[in-house]
Structure to design on (266 residues):
């Protein structure tokens, strides 16, 4: 099993190496395509033990990663204004020493393997793994993928109609960052699916590293969006009314701002 994880880590390094072309791609385009590649590799490595539940989860993850990275890539290629906005938010490879860039690359690959750990362990466990947690996890993950895809589509449609206005329709009426909510739901489902399959301490450590890591990244991204929107729409009375009544990330949880939490900067 350790050999399988080493293979997945090397594969994640190879796919996420696209970040050497554009630094932000370590976290965006390289992220989704890494998840797709790791899902396919897991199917191949665990094929003799693979059951339908694990197969569906891995298929869901493969399609999720493919959709996400293709969406992000097409958005950058078609929308130069968006690229300029991103360039203002993030630093570039040239802004860091080469050692830091390598550390970011390796850390991203390790994070992606950590996120996939529950699905890998469940696939390897086969029919002997806990069915109930696997099914519950799959349902939560599927809801997360659906929420994220719908949120991306709704935002894209809204921006086509009025590029200069913030989005407050559809899922954006519930929370201000529903795409990130979908991401958290997805990986919560994946983590839950692995319960009953974590048989050693390092299984738990790697799975928790992946889950906690991606939740942190989502809150960090939420903070970055909040600061960007405040700069763009802060003087708009409609926007001020919107952010006062709409939670920033978690439905029914009265957290309306994370801007003050500088430790979320990432």
């Amino acid at each position: 099993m350790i050999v399988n994880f080493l293979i997945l880590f090397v594969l994640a390094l190879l796919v996420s190496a696209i970040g050497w072309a554009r630094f932000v791609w370590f976290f965006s385009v390289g992220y989704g395509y890494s998840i797709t590649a790791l899902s396919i590799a897991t199917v191949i490595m665990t094929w003799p033990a693979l059951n339908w539940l694990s197969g569906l989860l891995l298929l869901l993850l493969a399609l999720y990663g493919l959709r996400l990275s293709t969406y992000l890539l097409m958005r950058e290629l078609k929308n130069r204004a968006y690229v300029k906005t991103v360039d203002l938010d993030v630093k570039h490879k040239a802004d860091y020493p080469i050692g830091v860039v390598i550390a970011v690359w390796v850390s991203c690959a390790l994070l992606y393997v950590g996120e996939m750990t529950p699905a890998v362990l469940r696939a390897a466990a086969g029919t002997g793994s806990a069915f109930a947690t696997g099914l519950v996890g799959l349902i939560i993950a599927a809801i997360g993928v659906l929420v994220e895809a719908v949120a991306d589509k709704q935002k894209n449609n809204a921006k086509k109609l009025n590029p200069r206005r913030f989005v407050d329709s559809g899922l954006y009426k519930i929370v201000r960052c529903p795409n990130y909510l979908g991401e958290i739901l997805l990986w919560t489902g994946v983590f839950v699916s692995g319960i009953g399959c974590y048989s050693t301490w390092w299984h738990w450590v790697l799975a928790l590293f992946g889950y906690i890591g991606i939740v942190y990244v989502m809150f960090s991204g939420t903070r970055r969006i909040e600061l960007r929107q405040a700069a763009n729409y802060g003087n708009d009375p409609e926007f001020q009314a919107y952010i006062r009544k709409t939670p920033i990330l978690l439905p029914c949880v009265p957290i309306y701002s994370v801007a003050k939490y500088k430790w979320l900067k990432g």
In short: DSSP finds nine helices and no strands in the chain. The two ends are 32 Å apart (CA to CA). The chain has a mean pLDDT of 91. Residues 33 and 65 are 5 Å apart (CA to CA).
